[in-house]
Design a protein that fits this description.
alpha+beta, single chain, four-stranded antiparallel beta sheet, 77 residues, 2 helices
Amino acid sequence: MLVIELINLLAQEDPNSLIVLASDEEGNSYSPLYSVEVGAFANGEFGLRILTKEAIKAGYTEEDVLHGKSAIALFPE
């Protein structure tokens, strides 16, 4: 799903609704959305899209940058 598709879906909903994430496709458990990270996705991995000053301070280097498609990861609580 692309960001624009998610925006269009969410725009139709009550903005005060809680966002929950399923643990798997079957919906065996659910958790509230805890955090969102912007990065890159390639070969089943999510990582840094660009090396920011904050990432460098945290110890990341150019080797940690993932050269893939821009992506947003949603993490459950």
